[in-house]
Amino acid sequence: MLFGAGRLGHAGRVQDGPTPGTTVYTDGACLGNPGPGGWAWAVPGGKWQSGAAARTTNQRMEITAALEAARSLPGRLEIVSDSTYVVNCFRDGWWEKWLVKGWVNSAKKPVANRDLWEPLVDLYRAAPGRLRFRWVKGHGSDPFNDLVDRLAVAAATSQKGGEGEEPPEPASLGPSDSPAGPPRPGR
Prior knowledge:
6-stranded mixed sheet; 8 strands
């Protein structure tokens, strides 16, 4: 499991030991839940990508962002997310229990979003130590988390993804997600 020993940093718990090769921030957004959604990942000072889904949930977009980052970027990754759903799956070993129980959760129900969790868990298991997950407080505490939040909201709003070699300036994007619930009209 992750985050065995560590210290508290500005973006949450930081695992002591070797630093992964690339830090990538991920986020998902949904205009209504369910509703039109978007996901995004960005490497500080490097590549970024976003995508959209017509009818989805916020949780699906959060998982998709992490999955697409893991699929798209080579080498060791530290995946930074404001989603406890994503981070806790790996920090607390939920995935291990799901595998043992045949993809059934602690409530003895099928694991939600298995179609996304399964390939992400497969990537995690395929190269032990390649993927590490770290939680960051959302909504203004970290400029890169704010960037991927704005990218995900823009993808959800426009229903178009994008990509580039350097992340766009946050000022060129629309507003971020509202921390108090779904985005306000026009967002």
